[in-house]
Amino acid sequence: MNFRTQLIGDLERSIGYHSRGCLERDRSSGKNGLSGMNPEYRVALIDSIEGMAHIAREWNGLLKKSRSNTIFLTWEWLYSWAESFLNPNRRLFILQVYKENKITGLAPWCIRHAGYRGNWIKQIGFLGTPEAGSDYLDVFSIPGKEKEVARSIYQFLKGSTSLWDVLVLKDISSDSLFLLHMLNQMEADGKYVELCPASFCPSAALPKTEEVFLAHLSSHRRKHFLRECRILLKEGGGTFQSARLEDLDFNMEEFYRIYRERWGISEEHVRFLENYRARCQNKHLMQVDLLTAGGKNVAALLLLGYGETLSLYFLAVDRSFETSISLASVLVGLSIKNAIRGGFSTYDFLKGTEDYKFLWANQGKRSLEAIFYGKKLGPLLWMMRKSMKSMAKVLLR
After folding, report:
1. In contact, 150 and 104? CB cutoff 8 Å
2. Which of 145, 294, 303, 385 could form a disulfide with 287 if both were Cys (CB 3.0 to 4.6 A apart)?
């Protein structure tokens, strides 16, 4: 059984073109090669930042009803990304699916223009990538309408081939019903699809008390963590502090300082985070946890809260601070204890295979990458290039 067949089986078991202010094609009449579309549904395209600005309430209302409700699909997160990272080679390609006048589904996409040896490819992909490192991406819908939304979007894409060349759904959730129905639609139509594993996001399911969480760790892990905490916080005079909302300014500056010294961070990314921070106040949570030792802040976590999930977005450690203790592990452990006190049920480490994440994680979730090619010369050359690179890796390894 190949990976794609297995995925479809697992998923089945687990569960008009118009720009705002522009002309809309008639979807119900089947014009423009869209006769396969359900006449009850129509698709609208938003391709401007002004159009996106007007649908915040509609966007978030649909997201909260969907089974894809995550912070990385909120209007605030993706609008802040669009403000910071759209450029002349990218434009919005947000598809809204309506049944009558009620929004039923939304595809948060943009089109990137990528060039290879004089061939320009119009590539559809998710908003929020790659700069923001967003996870759990999806096309979201009213529960029970995923099949109709996938079918409507598929028919829209079939009838709008001049607008795009390749559809790349990277970091889409492995349990996405949109992906399942899109794959089924493509298979029934005899289309070629590339499907492969993408990222893995470890996480920790949190109990009601810190004591229960520590008790579920291995004896060695628990003793090691408590010993390091004792050395750093008691014998070394260290402190842990957490700040959010109106108390966040100083901690954010310290986070930027430590992260910039350790990894570097672009001004565009800082602007994105500050735009999101300003936009999400009193809606979502942004939090910075700091670890202090030797009279200075030596480690920082930037965390994002949404519902009962607290996500570790960025971690930075001051490498100039000499100690045999794992600052990252101590800070994460203290942050998890703080999250339990705050009533969170999940501590999500997001994508990545760093060792410290798996010291604490007790579950995880896989994302996928699905690529759909248009029937044109450009996508064909792009696919051949990818295939040749893959063959070279096999032969040279």
Report:
1. no
2. 303
- Locate 331 and state its tokens: 């800070």
CB 90 within 8 A of CB 130: no
C-alpha–C-alpha distance, residues 199 and 264, integer Å: 23
Q: Per mean pLDDT, which range of 119-128, 139-148, 328-337 is the poorest? A: 119-128
CA 318 – CA 332 distance, rounded (Å): 15
Return the pLDDT at 375.
73
Task: Supply φ then ψ for residue 322, to 5 degrees.
Answer: -90, 120
371 forms beta bridges with 168, 194
Cis peptide bond N-terminal to 379, omega within 30? no
Q: What is the pLDDT of residue 388?
A: 62
d(C-alpha 79, C-alpha 3), whole Å: 34
Q: Locate 202 and state its tokens.
A: 């470890």
Joined tokens for residue 214: 């520590």
Q: Which residue has the tokens 């089109």?
A: 111
Query: DSSP string spanning 254-273?
Result: HHHHHHHHHT---HHHHHHH
User: Strand 363-373 and strand 166-173: pairing?
Assistant: antiparallel
Query: Who's near 88: CB < 8 A, 6+ residues apart?
Result: none
- DSSP 3-state assignment of 290? strand
Kindly report whether the global pTM for this prediction surpasses the value 0.85.
Answer: yes
Report the pLDDT averaged over residues 21-43: 49
What is 46-110 written as a DSSP string? E-SHHHHHTTHHHHHHHHHHSTT--GGGSHHHHHHHHHHH--TTEEE-EEEEEETTEEEEEE-EE
Q: Is the sign of the CA dihedral 314, 242, 328, 197 positive or negative?
A: negative
Look at residue 189 and tell me whether its pLDDT is greater than 50.
yes
The torsion angle over the Cα atoms of residues 154, 155, 158 and 159, rounded to 10 degrees, is -140
Residue type, 343: G
Supply the pLDDT for residue 236.
Answer: 78
pLDDT tens per residue across span 67-99: 999 999 999 999 999 999 999 999 999 999 999
Question: Cα-flanking dihedrals φ and ψ of residue 193, to 5°?
Answer: -135, 135
Asked if residue 251 has pLDDT above 60, the reply is yes
How many CB atoms sit inside 10 A of residue 352's CB?
Answer: 16
| pLDDT above 70 coverage of the chain, percent | 84
The neighbour count for residue 200, using CB atoms within 10 Å, is 17
Interacting residues of 78 by C-beta distance below 8 A, sequence separation 6+? 72, 108, 127, 128
C-alpha 355: how far from its chain's center?
Answer: 21
